[in-house]
């Protein structure tokens, strides 16, 4: 038979949440800015990459359709 789980009281739950949130390590302002800049640069690079791929595939499809 499965053991019955003991129910946690709301007060105990709040204490557990406070204990866990005290363990969270928030990034510094500089880390946040650096990460945001990195994400922006990667977004630009990937958008240009996919624009190039899309353009090449579009041209290939147009060329193939012109053969028919």
TrEMBL record:
The protein's name in its UniProt record: Protein translocase subunit SecE
Query: Which is a GO BP term held by this UniProt record?
Result: protein secretion
Q: Which PROSITE patterns does the record associate with it?
A: SECE_SEC61G
Q: InterPro entries, alphabetically?
A: SecE_bac (IPR005807), SecE_sf (IPR038379), Translocase_SecE/Sec61-g (IPR001901)
| Primary site of residence | membrane
Gene3D superfamilies, sorted: Preprotein translocase secy subunit
Which organism encodes this protein?
Pontixanthobacter aestiaquae
Entry's localization field: Cell membrane; Membrane
- Transmembrane parts of this sequence: 36-65
Entry's family note: Belongs to the SecE/SEC61-gamma family.
- The answer to whether the entry has keyword Protein transport is yes
Give the Gene Ontology MF terms in alphabetical order.
protein transmembrane transporter activity
The record's Gene Ontology cellular component field reads:
plasma membrane
Record text on subunit structure and interactions:
Component of the Sec protein translocase complex. Heterotrimer consisting of SecY, SecE and SecG subunits. The heterotrimers can form oligomers, although 1 heterotrimer is thought to be able to translocate proteins. Interacts with the ribosome. Interacts with SecDF, and other proteins may be involved. Interacts with SecA.
Keyword entries, A-Z: Cell membrane, Membrane, Protein transport, Translocation, Transmembrane, Transmembrane helix, Transport
Q: Which Pfam family name is an example for this entry?
A: SecE
Q: Which gene encodes it?
A: secE
Function, in words = Essential subunit of the Sec protein translocation channel SecYEG. Clamps together the 2 halves of SecY. May contact the channel plug during translocation.
The membrane-topology field of this record reads: Single-pass membrane protein
């Amino acid at each position: 038979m499965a053991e019955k789980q003991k129910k946690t009281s709301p007060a105990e739950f709040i204490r557990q949440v406070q204990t866990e949130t005290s363990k969270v390590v928030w990034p510094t302002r500089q880390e946040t800015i650096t990460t945001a800049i990195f994400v922006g640069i990667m977004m630009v690079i990937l958008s240009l990459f996919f624009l190039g791929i899309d353009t090449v595939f579009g041209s290939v499809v147009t060329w193939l359709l012109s053969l028919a």
